[in-house]
Amino acid sequence: MAARPGGHNLAVMNGPKEKVLTLDTMNACVKRVEYAVRGPIVLRALELEQELRQGVKKPFTEVLALCVHPDLLNSPDFPEDAKRRAESILQACGGHSLGAYSNSSGIQPIREHVAQYIQRRDGGIPADPNNIFLSTGASDAIVTVLKLLVAGEGRCRTGVLIPIPQYPLYSAALAELNAVQVDYYLDEDRAWALDVAELRRALCQARGHCRPRALCIINPGNPTGQVQTRECIEAVIRFAFEEQLFLMADEVYQDNVYAEGSQFHSFKKVLMEMGPPYSTQQELASFHSISKGYMGECGLRGGYVEVVNMDPAVQQQMQKMMSVRLCPPLPGQAVLDMVVSPPEPSDPSFTQFQAEKQAVLADLAAKAKLTEKVFNAVPGIRCNPVQGAMYSFPRIELPPRAIQRAKELGLAPDMFFCLRLLEETGICVVPGSGFGQREGTYHFRMTILPAAEKLRPLLEKLSQFHAKFTREYS
Amino acid sequence: MAARPGGHNLAVMNGPKEKVLTLDTMNACVKRVEYAVRGPIVLRALELEQELRQGVKKPFTEVLALCVHPDLLNSPDFPEDAKRRAESILQACGGHSLGAYSNSSGIQPIREHVAQYIQRRDGGIPADPNNIFLSTGASDAIVTVLKLLVAGEGRCRTGVLIPIPQYPLYSAALAELNAVQVDYYLDEDRAWALDVAELRRALCQARGHCRPRALCIINPGNPTGQVQTRECIEAVIRFAFEEQLFLMADEVYQDNVYAEGSQFHSFKKVLMEMGPPYSTQQELASFHSISKGYMGECGLRGGYVEVVNMDPAVQQQMQKMMSVRLCPPLPGQAVLDMVVSPPEPSDPSFTQFQAEKQAVLADLAAKAKLTEKVFNAVPGIRCNPVQGAMYSFPRIELPPRAIQRAKELGLAPDMFFCLRLLEETGICVVPGSGFGQREGTYHFRMTILPAAEKLRPLLEKLSQFHAKFTREYS
């Protein structure tokens, strides 16, 4: 192409032009996205999270190895039930291989196994495989459902109720989608319980400036570690029904319940047991993942959503959206299959599997208790029981001079605390401000995943640092 | 919660209420999304696509098996170079395992290997690992970059130029993001070549009602199979520079070039060789995938984007967006590592790898030629040479009465043809209307992936069906 006279080529001559994409001209919604869990402060947390990876992984990795390299099906080194399992997964795959695209909603027999898992979990209440969509981790499915809900402009913009504190995927996705985040506060004084009166307050207040259409629940709670009672769940369902809210139940920690007296109740089960009109009309999406539980296979990115009472036309639209990304990663689908149909008593791997699963969960339970105990022995730190999930979210008192100093540095006070902690002790925790908290309160989120012999010194070091920090700024 | 008197509980009594989410109230952008490639007609195409899966896969699956189940590192059945490779990948993983989250941008050593691959590919022009972001297949990265570009309202809404025919990920993503799709037509009479005059026409026309900010190129072309010349790429870069357009180069078929005289030139290489101001200022994102080439590991969902001359502040925002989804699936990252650093001449696997890679590519080249030859022997079908990628996109003549009949049925004429073809022959091809085509022309996309001994009868059966269909409606 020859150079053209006039305007355009001046740019070529006259030195640097402005970029097409700058902070000023880029998608403003993207700029508003915040995601504390992957901020600079948590790079090291990744390392800690690895500690979960022990024991029970072997049956999974054996089957996955057989799936990715089927030559191994002839090897005498693998147990027969692992081979049968791998063979059945491969049978369901196009070209007998994990390397091919699957159906966009996931491999059909795996959707069926998920339905059977849900049915067992929910005491026999049926689940329909056609209402189950496999996903790239739970995050992917959560964003897809939120996407469907977004509509309207100005005062009719979609509002979505989310708990505070929350897992920041929600605030990030709502910012990106230009929906209105409607905060309801969990009650720290009642071990982070959800209170329907507070839901109602948040809803009424929001109705002035947006159109609330969905209610997100995280149970067991991230970062709170709270496990909801059956009564609470019933009340939430009644509320959602009366107020015409689509329910989104983030239940990725359903296998992680430790506290005595606490038990996981799925929203689906409670909804169905409440009978009509709830069971026949209340819209619900429930999310699960292979990244948590006792398996922690987060790197493989597997999960699913089950939808209940969704308008079939909308469900078709959801399926279409999932198809644009072709399919969820096959290794994640394969491991989901193993998670939802673990070895049975007659299988050679059963005893080992059960023993290792119990060991992992018992270990987590012990660490949950240890965390609460150590923190609550420290003046200025108060930690609710870690009933479930994988985190403690203790409240910390910070001296006014530290708060002042943080403000001078342009930092949230708990971010300032966490940065100092990281610098002086190497311990990496995420400041509460990334999850949301009541004005004037400060927290951090710490995982209970480190091995017990490492966790105790970590907790003690952290407590000592808090004392030192408090003295320094008093 | 006790039942409350008054308004809300009436809903409970008075039978079915309206759903929160209906076709009328859902996200209108989602409804506008269309994605022909995964429409009902292509369910069977998935099966065909499996045929690629042969030969060269073994070195990949061996290493992947070693990575997912490291116990195998002690097995004598795996070659030493596969073990070394697996060990080096695992070294870079948190907890020495593919089951853990990685850095959101991907495992650092793999980003470095991608940079080295690009540098080799581009004759030594350097690539910076920090400009490379691993992704869940190329689709994921393409949508992320489009997301950054979306801004403005009304006549200032972002416009994005895309080729027609296009791969429908682009139209789907633009619809979802509420951006304006600006069509530029590829020239069927010149083997689907891109013409800068046509780009200019499309741009000028679009400027009346939106703000065009980006230009998407698919090279080698999907569905066209066209491979762009170096001259064409230079002209496109000059055009983008003069018109201030961000360049998005979808280069996922870079290993799939078959025609004599055709050669893949990366946009990055041409841009850099053009020197300043282009090389120092033109913004570019180039996408690649493990789903195509000679490996076809689509089920593992792996890919990457390299960004060039991107505003560092925007690049940080991009990294943030990627972190919200935590990380790309680890097995896809591991296989990307193998794709970008294949066995070297000194490795035990080298000879077998080279032989199988060459065999797969030679086979595809033969099938590309066969497709063109068979179709062009049929009256009423005209097929451009399949210079690259994995598809033919022949033009078909349809008799006026068939077009009339399709309209009565509410179908696009080529959709009607493809549905009849599927019913009567079991052959599944995607109608051209899903990719876009000039008004009044009709096409379909067919993959060249089936094994040669199956492809020839398929092509002949399809040709015979076209003749029969034409007679029937004449």
Automatic annotation (TrEMBL), chains A, B:
Pfam families: Aminotran_1_2. InterPro entries: ALAT1/2-like, Aminotransferase_I/II_large, PyrdxlP-dep_Trfase, PyrdxlP-dep_Trfase_major, PyrdxlP-dep_Trfase_small. It catalyses: L-alanine + 2-oxoglutarate = pyruvate + L-glutamate. Pathway: Amino-acid degradation; L-alanine degradation via transaminase pathway; pyruvate from L-alanine: step 1/1. GO terms for molecular function: L-alanine:2-oxoglutarate aminotransferase activity; pyridoxal phosphate binding. Keywords: Aminotransferase, Pyridoxal phosphate, Transferase. It is an enzyme of class 2 (transferase). GO terms for biological process: L-alanine catabolic process. The keyword ATP-binding does not apply. Its cofactor is pyridoxal 5'-phosphate. Its EC number is 2.6.1.2. The keyword Transferase applies. Residues 88-462 form the Aminotransferase class I/classII large domain. Belongs to the class-I pyridoxal-phosphate-dependent aminotransferase family. Alanine aminotransferase subfamily. Homodimer. This is alanine transaminase.
